[in-house]
Amino acid sequence: MGKASAGSSVATLPGHVQATAAPIRPWYSIFNSVVFRDAEVLLEELDVLASLYREAGSRAWAVWVPPWQELDEELAGYGMKIDSTPMLMAASIDELDLTPQLDLELMEEATAYVVAQVNDRAHGVLPEWSMTAVFENLSDRVKPYVALVDGKPASGLLALQNEGDCYFWFVATAPEARKRGLASELARHALREARQAGCTTTTMESTAMAEETYERLGFRPFGRYRVWEWRSS
Q: Of 20, 39, 37, nearest to 29 (Cα)?
């Protein structure tokens, strides 16, 4: 995400602290996010991170705190607030039942741009805040999948195969096409392809609304991220 849109960047700080900036959508902290391994270094670098995002033009940014870290007091003291608590989920691909359950109509040459459009519709995003700007030039390593209903994009996801893992992100279904199992079937299709490519595991972060869906697929919960957000007044 830090290389896919105009003005975007990725900064790597000591202690495995990585900050992605996408100022083309300055109020979306999901596109302006920090991940880390060393909590002490993260806390030492908060002012540096704030300066980095200010100079980039991002007006909101977030720190993704994994389930095994406890930083609530420190980040709250810095003026940040909890934005969301997505569930970290994972599975061994061989343990999943990937037998097709729906006859999907797949978009033959799906693009990340179309997946972004589906996400816009799913989340009610106004045109001027469309996610498409951030998905403009995603790496070729990211594979988009789109399911059609009556020839129109109805559900989509992005899959990234990395070191034997198939990671899902930006899974969404348009409101009028929900409760048909489209996203689940799209995930099964993507995982069959990932298995053929040599992947053995699959990971994702799920919203509360989708957790039961992924558990039915065979994903297991491993605890919640706590996404702490700083937002300009």
A: 20
What tokens were used for 70?
């406890």
**CATH code given to domain 9-86+225-231:** 3.40.630
Chain position carrying tokens 């540096």: 48
Q: Which residues contact 42 (CB under 8 A, 6 or more apart)?
A: 15, 17, 34, 36, 63, 71
Q: Are the beta carbons of 145 and 114 closer than 8 angstroms?
A: no
As given in the structure block, the two tokens for residue 159 are 């899959």
Q: Taking the domains of the chain in order of start, what are their residue ranges?
A: 9-86+225-231, 90-206
Q: Give 90-206's CATH code, choosing from 3.20.20.60, 3.90.1210.10, 3.40.50.300, 3.40.630.30.
A: 3.40.630.30
With cut-offs at 50, 70 and 90, classify the pLDDT of residue 137. Answer: confident
Q: How far is CA 83 from CA 6, 33, 64, 194, in A?
A: 25, 12, 10, 32
Cβ-Cβ contacts under 8 Å for 44 (sequence gap 6 or more): none
Contact 122, 207 (CB under 8 A): no
Q: Is 195 exposed, middle or buried (0-12, 13-18, 19+ CB in 10 A)?
A: middle
This prediction's pTM: 0.92
112-124 pLDDT per residue, tens: 999 999 999 999 9
